[in-house]
């Protein structure tokens, strides 16, 4: 497909995908009081005097007419851990505000809880440009809700570019805050991103592995041990949030020779978990038609992905969330035999 200017559309998208963009949710309240929202990667500043911003909705958007009718909007700048919220607003149709907490700005437009920053605006002008509109907003009010790394989109992925930039180039103080590591340590190793990753992940994984070993030493039924392992994993999200994010983002690089010791710890973790699962299959606590290593990887990935959306100040504590995950996962691959059944078999 070619554009009217003769530029191939796929090439156009591919080239411009290398330029990272911020991710924002544009919100408004319709005349009937119902909130409306749309995800954009085009929010930008325009002018300081007067204070103007802009975003560019697609002409095919079904949410833009609702926002335009409101006459005002609020740009909610998402944080790097809000990918799930981003996906919720990216879908067409349905209730985008389901389970989303928000407070009204001066215009009445929703300020979504937990965003990095917000900008409340009146619609100043709307221009047509190609297959999009250019919407100019005059700023009413704005604020930083929660200092942090914003969600970024580049080459088809969310979040990773921002964290990589913090690790390799950002100020030591900001990186220390993001990772929850002592600033002196960050400054000491800051000339090398690999050294930061090595130091951070080695300490984190060694601590987590020792916790896992303590859980297994306390023994108990395979179900009880599995539940305790899941709780320990969720506790690590509270205590080592930055390290968990780095562990996910850098996983593909951990196969390199310089990270062999980290890969070795991860193999030890896998062996510990699969031993527990295999024992549970032998005792009849867990289903025999599942492969232990696959079960471990499923639980590991599902648990640690929670770092992307879990907030310590949210409705559930990490312990409560761990209990719910444990019930869902263990009931999913556990058998429904009673203790008496297992004793008599």
What does this structure look like?
The chain is an alpha+beta fold and 345 residues long. The protein has two domains: 9-154, Pnp Oxidase, Chain A; 159-344, Tetracycline Repressor, domain 2. Helix content is 46%, strand content 19%. It contains 13 helices and twelve strands. The chain has helices spanning 9-16, 64-70, 83-90, 160-168, 172-179, 183-189, 193-217, 222-239, 241-249, 260-283, 292-304, 318-333, 339-344; strands at residues 21-22, 24-29, 35-40, 44-47, 52-55, 72-77, 102-104, 110-112, 117-129, 132-144, 152-154, 157-158. Strands 3-2-6-9-10-5-4 form a seven-stranded antiparallel beta sheet. A three-stranded antiparallel beta sheet has the order 1-11-12, with helices on one face. The chain has a two-stranded antiparallel ribbon with strand order 7-8. The longest helix is centred in the middle third of the chain and has 25 residues, at 193-217.
């Amino acid at each position: 497909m070619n554009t009217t200017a003769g530029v191939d559309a796929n090439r156009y998208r591919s080239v411009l995908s290398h330029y990272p963009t911020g991710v924002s949710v544009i919100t408004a309240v319709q005349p009937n009081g119902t909130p409306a929202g749309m995800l954009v990667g085009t929010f930008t500043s325009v002018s300081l005097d007067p204070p103007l911003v802009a975003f560019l909705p697609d002409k095919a958007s079904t949410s833009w007419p609702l926002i335009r009718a409101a006459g005002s909007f609020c740009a909610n700048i998402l944080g790097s851990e809000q990918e799930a919220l981003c996906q919720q607003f990216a879908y067409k149709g349905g209730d985008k505000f389901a389970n989303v907490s928000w407070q009204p700005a001066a215009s009445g437009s929703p300020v979504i809880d937990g965003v990095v920053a917000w900008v409340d605006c009146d619609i100043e002008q709307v221009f047509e440009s190609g297959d999009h509109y250019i919407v100019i907003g005059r700023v009413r009010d704005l604020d930083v809700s929660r200092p942090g790394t914003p969600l970024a989109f580049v080459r088809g992925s969310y979040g990773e570019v921002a964290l990589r930039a913090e690790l390799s180039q950002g100020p030591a103080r900001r990186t220390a805050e993001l990772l929850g590591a002592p600033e002196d340590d960050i400054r000491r190793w800051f000339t090398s991103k690999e050294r930061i990753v090595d130091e951070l992940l080695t300490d984190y994984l060694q601590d987590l592995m020792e916790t896992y070993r303590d859980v297994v030493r306390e023994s108990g039924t395979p179900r009880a041990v599995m539940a305790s392992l899941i709780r320990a994993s969720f506790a690590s999200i509270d205590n080592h949030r930055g390290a968990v994010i780095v562990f996910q983002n850098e996983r593909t690089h951990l196969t390199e020779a310089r990270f062999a010791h980290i890969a070795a710890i991860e193999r030890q973790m896998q062996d510990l978990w699969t031993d527990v699962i295999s024992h549970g299959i032998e005792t009849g606590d867990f289903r025999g038609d599942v492969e232990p290593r696959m079960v471990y990887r499923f639980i590991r990935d599902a648990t640690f992905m929670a770092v992307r959306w879990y907030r310590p100040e949210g409705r559930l504590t990490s312990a409560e969330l761990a209990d719910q995950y444990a019930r869902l996962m263990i009931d999913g691959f556990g058998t429904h035999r009673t203790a008496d059944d297992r004793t008599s078999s």
